[in-house]
Amino acid sequence: MEAVIEMRKQPRTQLSWPVSIWVPAVSRFFNGRSENISKSGVFINVPMATPVREGQIVEINFPRTAELAKQKGQFARIKTGMVVRVDRRNVVKDGSIGVGVAFG
Length: 104
Description:
Layout: E1 13-14, E2 18-23, E3 28-37, E4 41-47, E5 57-63, H1 66-72, E6 76-87, H2 91-94, E7 96-103
């Protein structure tokens, strides 16, 4: 049995939304999907080949619909954060990894 210590300071909202993650170490975006989000961070699923590790700074691109982009004046919301967790439990199941990012 594994003990889990809750480190979150903000409540999470379940949100499945297409996102892309910019990994500066390889100067490339990787497409994924958010699983949940809060004011302080996000958990996303990306392909297992995404080269992320704990402590790495990344940018998350949250695209907006055309209507929302018109209201907000831009087509995406970009958030910078630090990778605080990499979860490889689903690699065999669906070829993805989970990445927890705390916003900076």
